[in-house]
Every structure is written in structure tokens, then in C-alpha cells.
Design brief:
Homeodomain-like_sf; 2 domains; DNA-binding; 303 residues; single chain
DNA sequence: AAGTAGGTCAACCGCTTGGAG
DNA sequence: CCTCCAAGCGGTTGACCTACT
């Protein structure tokens, strides 16, 4: 037995709204307000529509100060940053963008912005995924990592994003000094980790992950990065940074493991990266690896 | 010019949340 | 507390439009 319908489907009009219906709804709400009761509103307004439908039409289209049309680069940045930190909480994201509706932002993300971001990642490089060495690495200097793809120096090949327009993944200013200085990656990781929430806000940082998973890895082996958060924990501090026009990623658990990588695809298959983008942040636990997934299965997963 | 594929976006569906009784 | 119900929310659908063959 299903849930009772919110209205009598047989007696309500569905589908696109006509200009006349729009006018009726707008006029009624401007004159009388919603009265805090959307269910009763259509009848009062003389509309043969479901209350839900009226609410949606008002909120997404008729409400004053609704902004339609192209999203600005700034709006793109805000959406990307927020999506990376809170996931698909469209209403919260919409609250940060005056005039935009959650529906608008959701559509924009699903149809344009997501693809824009996906375009940043080039076709997969099929390298072996040495996850165990990654997990065990306690690199205090970039070159000490056992990983073949940790930061090696400025002559490495990085992704680069078009300088002319926003790709959704842009350099963050203050990390440039960190990356080009003598900071160990560990120190940089700690610093970044400690301040990530500010960076999201102030430095357009695209940040995957949260404090929630910050204790996933510890040197005493009490837990590992492949715990219940799985790849989410592993990716929790996957930063996308810019160094003089180049980009590289940092993978860190905020504690004893961290490393710079040139290419996230060295560690995560293209599908994982795409999945991370398409499913949202780690916060909502939408990204899982099997807790018991072994190195072997990880190694073979993408190849 | 016609057919097809892909993209966009308004609207719907159904689950979750929170307040009232 | 518990139940009920309306609002809110995110995912999905489908009509329409445009580009491509």
C-alpha cells in the first residue's frame, strides 16, 4: 500500500503552466501571500493545480528577483566549492546564490558544470595502482614517497586548465608559496587540512572530504584509509592546486600520510574520479570501497 | 528536407523532516 | 512520546529544442 497522494490527481491539471495560470498564481500570492498553506492555495487562487505544483512554480519561476540565464564564473566557483564540500545539497547551495533556485543549480550542475569539470580530466592513464604503498607512505618529503607518481619536481607534466575561463578547478593563491617553498608536504598537508574550511571560502579551493574522516588513518594501524569511508577517506584531502599555471593534487589524510601527485588518475581510476564528481563529496558517504578490498582487487579494478 | 541523437530545463515523484495536536 | 500531515528537498522524467548526419 503506497503513500496517500497529496491531492486528487484526477482533478488537478498537470504539465506546463499557461501564462494565465502564472498570472493567477502570481496575483494571488502578491495580494494574499501563501498563508502558510500551499495545499489550500490553489483552490483559493482559482487554480486547478496541486499545491505542490503551485509552490514549485512560485519558487522556481514566479517569485520576484529570480535570476534566469547564464551563470557567472563566480557563481560557478561557489557552486563547485560548495558541491565539493557539502555535496548535492542544492537548497543550501542556492541559498548562497541570490536569485538562483535549487532546481536551477541542480540542472546547471547536471547538464553543464559537471561536464565542464569532467573535461578537466583527460583520458585515463592506465598505470598500476599501488594502493598499499600509497597507504604506507609516510612521506615527509615529496621525493621520499614510494609512489612513482608523487611530486617529483617542476618538470613533471601536469594538467593545465585554460587560463581564459573558469573550468571549475582553479589555482588557489596561497598554496603556491607552500608548494614552491621548502615546506614538506606533510607540513603543507597539515596546514591545508587545518584550514580547509577557510580555503573553500576564501581561496576557491576545491576540496574533497571533511574532518569527519580526518582520523581514518593512523600510524598504529588502528584504522586505515580504506575503512568505512573507503576511497572517500583516501580522497578526503584531495586538493586541486595551482602552481604557476600548473595543477597538481595533494592526497593526505591530514595526519601521517600525504603525498603530492601529478595525476589523480595515478591513484584513482577515471571512473572513481568521475564518480566523485558526479556523486558529490565524501561527506555524504556516497563513495565507497569495500572495506575488505585488497590491494590486488584495487590493482586490477581499473585495468 | 527528414530523421536522429543529444542537450536543456520545467515539472513531477516520492522520501524526509519538522511542527502541531 | 506518538501520529499525522504539510513543507521541503533531491532525484528523475519527459517535452521541447538544437545540432548533426
Amino acid at each position: 500500500m503506497g503513500r496517500a497522494p497529496c491531492c486528487d490527481k484526477a482533478n488537478v491539471k498537470r504539465g506546463p503552466w499557461s501564462p494565465e495560470e502564472d498570472a493567477k498564481l502570481k496575483e494571488y500570492i502578491e495580494k494574499s501571500g501563501t498563508g502558510g498553506n500551499w495545499i489550500a492555495l490553489p483552490q483559493k487562487a482559482g487554480l486547478k493545480r496541486c499545491g505542490k505544483s503551485c509552490r514549485l512554480r512560485w519558487l522556481n519561476y514566479l517569485r520576484p528577483n529570480i535570476k534566469h540565464g547564464e551563470f557567472s564564473d563566480d557563481e560557478d566557483r561557489i557552486i563547485c566549492s560548495l558541491f565539493a564540500t557539502i555535496g548535492s545539497r542544492w537548497s543550501i547551495i542556492a541559498a548562497q546564490l541570490p536569485g538562483r533556485t535549487d532546481n536551477d543549480i541542480k540542472n546547471y550542475w547536471n547538464t553543464k558544470l559537471k561536464k565542464k569539470l569532467m573535461g578537466v580530466f583527460p583520458p585515463p592513464q592506465r598505470k598500476s595502482l599501488q594502493i598499499s604503498s600509497v597507504l604506507q607512505a609516510s612521506s615527509s618529503s615529496p621525493s621520499s614517497s614510494t609512489s612513482t607518481s608523487s611530486y617529483q619536481g617542476s618538470n613533471s607534466s601536469y594538467y593545465s586548465t585554460p587560463a581564459s575561463s573558469f573550468t571549475g578547478l582553479e589555482p588557489i593563491s596561497f598554496t603556491s608559496s607552500l608548494l614552491s617553498s621548502n615546506y614538506s608536504t606533510n607540513a603543507a598537508a597539515q596546514l591545508l587540512h587545518a584550514h580547509h574550511s577557510y580555503q573553500v571560502k576564501d581561496h576557491n579551493l576545491l576540496f574533497f572530504g571533511s574532518d569527519q574522516a580526518a582520523s581514518c588513518s593512523s600510524s598504529d594501524g588502528s584504522s586505515s584509509s580504506l575503512n568505512e569511508y573507503g576511497a572517500a577517506a583516501d580522497l578526503q584531502n584531495c586538493f586541486y592546486n595551482g602552481v604557476e599555471g600548473n595543477q597538481r593534487f595533494m592526497i593526505s589524510n591530514g595526519g601521517d600520510f600525504n603525498t603530492w601527485i601529478e595525476n589523480p588518475l595515478d591513484y584513482y581510476g577515471p571512473e572513481e574520479i568521475k564518480r566523485l564528481i558526479s556523486t558529490g563529496s565524501c561527506n555524504n558517504n556516497s563513495l565507497y570501497f569495500d572495506e575488505h578490498k585488497t590491494e590486488e582487487t584495487l590493482q586490477t579494478q581499473y585495468f
